Amino acid sequence: MMNQLANLNWVSVLLAFVVYFLLGALWFTLFFSRPYKISLGRENETLPNKPIFIVGPALCSLVITLATAVLLYALDISGWGDAVAFALLIGIGFLVANTVNIAINPNIPRPILYGVISGSYHLTGILIVSMILTAMK
């Protein structure tokens, strides 16, 4: 499967990564800032803005985008319907489920709200990533 790295359209991987990362920046700081803070029990605070909170999500988005590209190429997904089905399977089966699982711990005061906000971001992101990668394949 890793032999697919040589076949990837790296411009599409870069574009999909940038869109996914920027979506996250907008999702958590503009679109859902207040509910996100509430889910963390920090609704009256300014969340920290240290480099790890920017670089960490960027690296994770890059890894997710790259893994998605490898799988799309290895599975020879080229149609829109298959790309959406793939994104829903990966998005719900791995990203949303894992996000909700991580949220269910004593450090997240509103785990379901956190899971909905973060999980829906990842589901939307993987849909967009899959569409970009498929369109530029």
UniProtKB/TrEMBL annotation:
<keyword id="KW-0472">Membrane</keyword>
<feature type="transmembrane region" description="Helical">
    <location>
        <begin position="52"/>
        <end position="74"/>
    </location>
</feature>
<feature type="transmembrane region" description="Helical">
    <location>
        <begin position="80"/>
        <end position="100"/>
    </location>
</feature>
<feature type="transmembrane region" description="Helical">
    <location>
        <begin position="112"/>
        <end position="136"/>
    </location>
</feature>
<keyword id="KW-0812">Transmembrane</keyword>
<dbReference type="InterPro" id="IPR013879">
    <property type="entry name" value="DUF1761"/>
</dbReference>
<keyword id="KW-1133">Transmembrane helix</keyword>
<feature type="transmembrane region" description="Helical">
    <location>
        <begin position="12"/>
        <end position="32"/>
    </location>
</feature>
<protein>
    <submittedName>
        <fullName>DUF1761 domain-containing protein</fullName>
    </submittedName>
</protein>
<dbReference type="Pfam" id="PF08570">
    <property type="entry name" value="DUF1761"/>
</dbReference>
